[in-house]
Records
---
Amino acid sequence: MLGPRLRAILGRMTGSSGRFWAERSAADERDRMVERQLRHRGIVDERVLAAMLVVPREAFVDPAQRALAYADEALPIPSGQTISQPYIVARMTELLGVGPRDRVLEIGTGSGYQAAILAEMGCRVTTIERHAELADGARARLAELGYSDRIEVRVGDGSVGDPGGAPWRGILVAAAAPSIPDALREQLDPAGGRLVLPVGPRDHQDLIVVTRNGNDWLERNDGPVAFVPLVGEGGFPG
Ligand code: SAH
């Protein structure tokens, strides 16, 4: 018979070793994701790859979807929204071209995963979500993971950006806009600020990168993507 003290010690040991193995296997899955889905497909920014290697994506998906946390696909989150495919998160982050201490605006917080990747790269992030349920969930999750000091989560219509926080070094829109909102162009840092967003009809879009230099806005197309709609004043009607 084990005494209560020994049982408590054993319980703690097996409990923590269970966690140890779960964390180990998630780390292995992240390694594989970074190699096969990102590096192999042409993501080259080492800072982006390093961030994707450490942020625990399983903490951002529904518990019922944990087995798919590192799968090569978008996954459903509450309010009928999605957490983007890992490759798309990496590609948008790479295209944004931001680094330590840059101030970044994200529109469409969703699960908070993209915001965590930006924070992990050293950015200071303001992220806006129109569904309070998602914003609350993301805020709690990001606090638990220790990102609160670098990420502010707000509820509201982000399609008009956040003029009070402008100029932004980077603006990343994680939902599809029918056209590039003028408000977002205007809020970019004139010295090379970048806006990355999907533009097009509701069912298919192109990933567009806008770089501002003074009063010139250079646009380029990074190829086809499919996102949930940006709903609001600068997006689609609700
Ligand atoms: N970046 C997220 C994925 C978000 S999916 C992640 O890493 O999980 C896109 C999100 O944009 C959805 O949560 C949707 O509710 C939100 N959204 C759509 N229109 C919006 C708007 N006008 N303002 C703020 N958020 C918006």
---
Amino acid sequence: MKFKIVSDSSSNVFTFSGVAYETVPLKIITAAKEYVDNAELDVSAMVRDLRTVKGRTGTSCPNIYEWKAAMSEADVVFAITMTSNLSGTYAAAMQAKAELLAEHPEKKICVLDSLSTGPEMQLVIEKLAELISAGKDFEEIECEIKEYMTHTHLIFCLESMANLARNGRVNPLVAKVAGVLGVRIVGVASPGGTLELLHKPRGGEKALATVVDVMKSYGYRGGAVRLAHCNNEAAAAKLAVKIRALYPDAEIKIIPTTALCSFYAEEGGLMVGYSDV
Ligand code: X90
């Protein structure tokens, strides 16, 4: 039995050792160019280009065929997507599953809607790998991962929400305050998989303290944390120090955002995935 994990590229994870793993890319589209969110892309160069790009910019989700190709050569597939409330990626993955099962009814495919993105998906991928490596079967893994996903959360801290607003993912009036006079927006992935804006701290230090407060009030107790940052390693490292000051045993990993999350979280943006167990 060949097991495989497939994620869309909004997880920021392109490789994973120990289990079969593949990412299907979202794309960033400008008038001049299409950037494919894969390991070959130079994300810093894209972020640089985006600073000066004129005209409309947008994104597109992986299509059914990309999902199907990534799912096809395994007997058991666990696929994870970004929230179905902000992207068509989940619908495409579900359609790919339906088509593959019609052709190969013996396959087992579970598509998980993360109702989130980025580092919260990363935690789910890591847990899936752990469950597969432990030799569990499809049904056990499906049940345990769904339970685990009730314990994972996502907080974001953004300096600009211009791309989110331009592409209709948040209210433009609310988005407007981000970046003005050093104001950050701190919010969470809501239970329904949308952006819920909570605070408007002014200045970087205040923003990091707010993130830690929100983590605590949403149930963080010292478990795993994954910090994804767009060109802001320094803030991610500071945040890790603040978390460890309260929870010395916190298991924290810092990774850069790849193209999709870099486009929407924008420069300076932080995304924090954590488990409350
Ligand atoms: O299908 C597509 O074109 C992709 C659309 C993606 C839109 C939103 C991406 C947000 C990425 C922002 C902070 C965290 C948001 C939490 C969401 C529940 C990063």
---
Amino acid sequence: MSGNESRLQAIYQITNREPADVEKPEPLSKIWACDVFNLAKMEESLSKNAFKAMKKTVHTGEPLDKATADILAAAMKEWAVSKGVKFYSHVFYPLTNITAEKHDGFIITNADGNAITEFSGSLLIKGEPDGSSFPNGSIRMTNAARGYTAWDPTSPVYVMYTDNGATLMIPSVFMSWTGEALDKKIPLLRSNDAMNKAGNRVLSLMGEEQIAPLNSSCGAEQEYFLVDSNFANSRPDLLLAGRTLFGAPSAKGQEFDDHYFGAISARVQVYMQDIEDQLYRLGIPAKTHHNEVAPGQFEIAPYYEAANVAADHQQLLMTILKATAKKHGFVCLLHEKPFAGINGSGKHVNWSVGNATQGNLLDPGETPHDNLNFLLFCGAVIRGVHKFGPLLRAVIASAGNDHRLGANEAPPAILSVYLGDQLEKVFQDIKDGKLTASQAAGEMDLGLSQILNFERDPGDRNRTSPFAFTGNRFEFRAVGSEQSVSGPLVAMNTMLADSLNWIADKLEVALKDSDQTKAVVSVLQELMNDHGNAVFGGDGYSSDWHKRAVEERGLKNIPSTADALPVLQEASVKELFESTGVLSPLELSSRYEVYAEQYILSLEVEAKLVVDMAKTTIYPAAVRYLSDLSMASAGMSEMGVDMDNSTAQAVASASNALMAGVSKLSEAMAKEDFASTDEHMQYFANDILSLMNEVRAYADTLETEVADELWPLPKYQEMLFIK
Ligand code: ADP
Ligand code: MG
């Protein structure tokens, strides 16, 4: 099929599309967590003692004894087999952002050749996927490839259905034979432990007698684009790179703000409900959905959960978003910037820490100035963002996210923290050595008798801040839509642990000769003097801030991944992870290597696609148009009619420039000798990317010149507006 034919076919198929079969919605009470072997199901099927042991493991992370594991595995298998399950799989999270799984059958045969099922505690607890092909950043040589997965009992097992089967999925950690973490889950669990220990120290010093284990929480807002699969399948760039590498802007984009929070189209609504029903069955509390800023862009946000479970659920949510799109004739794009010139997608990671005895420690209550625990934890976050801002930038670094950060749309690449008016004032007072009553939030009175008055929030929202306090949590807004939330959560938990330890050390001394309030104020005063520069309530997009942040505040502006990832090699970061026990130096450097390699590889794929599409798709279309024009012109001159040849001139010169750009890019891609990984990344960030952009610019010019019927690729206006 020629390029344009596939576009016409796509439009034909979309306009003649039969609506997807809609099943009548089931009540929530019937489907909620029905495919999860959670504590409630364990209680039904386990003996009292086994259940008690299991509950303790889930709540405290205490190891499970072998006998209980066997009992549990048998109960799990029975439950799964009754649902038609024949296979089980340890699901794990390698250093790529994907979810990995290896499936094994329950089946074994006995001496008579009959099939029976088997699943012991040891099979549940430990899997051995080998997985030597996963990136490990020099932790393992392939000749020493043994890798283990081990069930994380704090994250429940569940059944995943595909069209013709069902599998028991076991959320797991993934480690090398020598015990190094090869995944994103182990560091998350360790960072939570480190934060728990440090938080416990601070709370004990504050005189708390009962202190339940502290846990971090996460609620992630996921943005995504939907494009009809008929269009997406005719765009190799969307299929292989997840973003358009070419495409002239559509005459209408997002300038009317008519998509944001607009009525959701019926087809998308059906897709969303399908997703939500699947999520509910898996015990994932999907809570909000709406249209986002860009045409074709949407958001889904589940209610927050314990960070470890939320991270697993987030991975599952991304898998389901993609898989379900197929069924509805869409392709779901999770890339941070699928379309140039309109908003990209992020993932706001809402994060707080708390426990069963003190509650949410980032909740200021009505009077933050006399909530000392809150002030200490909030101060610890401020110190963390200031001291480890570049680390926070490094954990959200990817080729995709570079298109948002540093560009004028998403939070800037400078890490500052927004507190809101009320809290900013409290911390400013503390810096001045005093603690005075907080400004009241006040009542919202519109003066309309129909509208009831309500309590206003004590601080406004700031959409331009990468790291914002939003009432009872921090919202890390700069995370990319395609990224795992684990990296950001690990960084936040670990920097918090470090700051809480610093606070505990200081408090121990200060409490010796002053009362509690005075001691807290003096510790926080020192903290604000050293780290208050990270607090910023103004417009994070303004060029004035970009200048002042760097020149006056000493904050770092790190626009690209090539500049951000080397932060993982810095001594202070190594020290942070080693002292908190979250990542050994080897584990940390392996992450640097893997992420750098992924950055280079993804740009390499994009560059190859640019060359390929320009040569084999775009240039031929331009030549065809030139041939049409020249034939017309020859015919005209035979008839003695003058024809303006400016279009032919424009097309010819853009085509020549396009191919010259392609040659330069191909040549640049051939370079192989790099002194270091850093240099290799810089080369891609600067030379290769700008050559790609150059080729694109000529191709996009051609798109606006060449006859529409000859244009081979679905256009922005089609992909964004035809649903
Ligand atoms: P908005 O778009 O206004 O920022 P949403 O309601 O879309 O807010 O998403 C906010 C997210 O923050 C939800 O996932 C919500 O459950 C989560 N959240 C609320 N409170 C907390 C908390 N204490 N800790 C972590 N996440 C939270
Ligand atoms: Mg938000």
